Amino acid sequence: MSLKIIVLAKQVPDTRNVGKDAMKADGTVNRAALPAIFNPEDLNALEQALRLKDEFPGSTLTLLTMGPPRAADIIREGLFRGADNGYLLTDRVFAGADTLATSYALHEAIKKIGKFDLIISGRQAIDGDTAQVGPQVAEKLGISQITYAEEIRSIKDGKITVKRRLERGVEIVEGKLPLLVTVNGSAPNCRPRNARLIQQYKYAKTASERQTESNDYVNICNTRACINLEEWSAADVNADPKQCGLSGSPTKVKKIENVVFQAKESKTIDSSDLQIEDLIIELITNHTIG
Amino acid sequence: MNNLFVYLEIENGKVEDVSLELLTKGRTLANSLHCNLEAVAAGSQLDEIGAQVFPYGVDVLHLFDDARLYPYTSLPHTSILVKLFEKEKPQIALMGATSIGRDLGPRVSSALFSGLTADCTALEIGDHEEKKEDKTYTNLLYQIRPAFGGNIVATIVNPDNRPQMATVREGVMKKEIFDAAYKGQTVSYKVKDYVSATDFVVDVIERHIEASKVNIKGAPIIVAGGYGMGSKENFRLLHDLANTIGAEVGASRAAVDAGYAEHERQIGQTGVTVRPKLYIACGISGQIQHIAGMQDSSMIIAINSDPNAPINTIADYVITGEVETVIPKMIKYYKKNSK
Fold first, then answer.
1. Residue A267 and residue B314: Cβ atoms within 8 Å?
2. Is it the case that residue A24 has pLDDT exceeding 70?
3. What is the pLDDT, as a whole number, of residue B117?
4. Residue of A271, A279, A285, A286 to mutate when probing chain B, most B C-beta within 10 A
5. What pairs with residue A154 in β-bridges?
6. Of the candidates B129, B101, B99, B112, which has an alpha carbon nearest to the alpha carbon of residue B40?
7. CATH no. for residue B142?
8. Number of domains in chain B
9. Among candidate residues B169, B200, B231, the one where a domain is terminated
10. Which chain B residue is nearest to residue A281, measuring alpha carbons?
11. CATH code, A89
12. In B, which residues are within 8 Å of A144 by CB distance?
């Protein structure tokens, strides 16, 4: 048995390591100060897909991402780790998309990719933490979903068995393929890049990347075959522009505010016995503790 | 028509706290909108649900009772909400930002083409001007949530699409009985009119859900540790202090990610929001996303070796020193001076 698997991945600013320069003086986010990374839970999803590919030789793993042209990095990163191919969905009309408009564009691209057995994505992206795009894509494709997956246990007779990690426990569920699975960060980490695959794919570029490349790259491509990474516009996937980007987004951002906490006048003490005992006595006396 | 709906999460016949918190908030919002508060229960053996939710001010309870609806699976519950909402046309629909609400909400919003905002930390009613179209919308739901790792707070509105949908985490809103004698109306539905056999494509084979052992949300005193605790072993110190003074142990996201504490102890935007009378922050630097979940504590004590830790700015008492030294002393002097 071989499977056709699509992995949805997103390039995100690394919001986990936000430094002081991440916010501009005017209170807007300084995206340039945040490195762009492969969304962590999408890497967990990629690993689950790669394990299926190991188990079922002949399976194909297609990566799909949507973003600006530089998100081609995500496709290359996936290829370095074992994906078979990938598509970058990129178009100005996608800009400003909320989760619903994003899922609309992704589902049109998936229809263009064609038949699949399984779609796997991370549960959520760290720049929004919404966990909405996976289920919304599934709904638009008319397939079911298994969210919060920690492990794909098995696939047999057209059925998938998945262990889900929930807030207060686990669930083992079985579903009929095709369906969509979203994977938690508690799932195993993704395997590292493979040196052979890096060699194979490091010169793989999209058409728009080629336009801005230096002569060195052109020279390399004159001496060897450079793989072309496919870029799709809204028109390429037959997406209705009205349902894309800002105009296809029912939610609107009314206001963005910088987070400022009310500073308090605090009393500083040291770790000497005397000062700590005084504090404890004060807390007991005013009935805060005890 | 055009009322405010809350989806109820039900575990072992009991409505979950997150849903009761949403009913409490929903009642307030419904009052300012002069509309009804309605609740949807889909599950099995739901006879007791009415008694549980009416005191929170529910005007109409929609009941879908069928053995196949418990435990929760995505498609049957989605079909129920989509068809019910198409008929009832709610202006607002709220659900918990839980593994159920975050599985169900997006599907429902996708099917109805309505906007959904995840993990709201505040919900308010207000007006909105769409300058480009020169249009003013009145009484919209302001869906307020942190974004970008908690560095900014965004107010989201859904001007044109209904219902305006939002999810909220457990512990963010307060749970409060509206009127113990409040009586609403119950409407029972034929489930087969709403759910088709083909919706049952995912089966739950095994399920181990434990009642939460940790109650940091309701604890009057919390001793919380951060990444600065350095190890799981050092977290024992926090448990010792907590046991001595009658507190619960909490943790920052960094400490949970490092494996020092269980996920259910996590405090902050991606964990639980707490409002204890005393919060002792140990080895917590004070990232915005943590502070947002504990800033309403009545008194905050910060213990940190770094005198410039951001948490110090919101603390009432700052103890500069090593947690390994300070905590045993606190235990010692509490034992000496209590009684």
1. no
2. no
3. 97
4. A271
5. A161
6. B101
7. 3.40.50.620
8. 2
9. B200
10. B337
11. 3.40.50.620
12. 74-75, 201-202
DSSP 8-state code for residue A285: H
Q: Give the domain-ending residue among B200, B229, B262.
A: B200
Taking only the tens place, the pLDDT of each residue in A122-147 is 999 988 889 999 999 999 999 999 99
A95 within domain boundaries: yes
CB contact under 8 A, A167 and B318: no
Closest residue in B to A27 (Cα) is B152
Q: Are A160 and B188 in contact (CB under 8 A)?
A: no
Concatenate the DSSP letters of all residues of B232-270 into one string.
Answer: HHHHHHHHHHHHHHT-EEEE-HHHHHTTSS-GGGBBSTT
Q: Do B151 and A271 touch (CB under 8 A)?
A: no
Q: What is the pLDDT of residue A108?
A: 98
Least CB–CB distance from A136: residue in B109, B299, B313: B109
pLDDT of chain B along its 339 residues, tens only?
899 999 999 999 999 999 999 999 999 999 999 999 999 999 999 999 999 999 999 999 999 999 999 999 999 999 999 999 999 999 999 999 999 999 999 999 999 999 999 999 899 999 999 888 889 999 999 999 987 767 788 999 999 999 999 999 988 898 999 999 999 999 999 999 999 999 999 999 999 987 777 788 889 999 999 999 999 999 999 999 999 999 999 999 999 988 999 888 999 887 888 999 999 999 999 888 899 889 889 999 999 999 989 899 999 999 999 999 999 999 999 999 987
- Is the CB of residue A80 less than 8 Å from the CB of residue A197? yes
Whether A50 has its CB under 8 Å from any CB of chain B: the answer is no
Measured between beta carbons, which residues in chain A are less than 8 angstroms from residue B312?
A: 266, 268
Using CA atoms, how far apart are residues B122 and B172, in angstroms rounded to an integer? 8
Q: Do A250 and B158 touch (CB under 8 A)?
A: yes
For residue B169, the enclosing domain spans 3-200
* Residue position matching structure tokens 């699975």: A181
Note whether residue B262 is domain-resident: yes
* C-alpha span between B86 and B76 (Å, rounded): 16
* Cβ density class B59-80: b for 16+ within 10 Å, e for less: bbbbbbbbeebbebbbbbbbbb
B264: nearest CB among A16, A135, A168: A168
Question: Is residue A232 situated within a structural domain?
Answer: yes
Provide the mean pLDDT of chain A: 91
| Cα A247 from Cα A260, distance rounded (Å) | 32
Q: In the structure encoding, which two tokens stand for residue A160, read together?
A: 């998938």
Residues B29 and B164 in one domain: yes
A262 C-beta neighbours (distance < 10 Å), count:
7
User: Is residue B210 included in any domain, yes or no?
Assistant: no
A215 vs chain B: nearest CA distance in angstroms? 38
Residues B255 and B166 in one domain: no
Residues 6+ apart with CB under 8 A from A54: none
Interface contact A140, partner B, CB < 8 A: yes
Which CATH number characterizes residue B317's domain?
3.40.50.1220
Whether residue A29 lies within 8 A of chain B, CB to CB, comes out as yes
Distance of residue B321 Cα from the nearest chain A Cα, in angstroms: 5
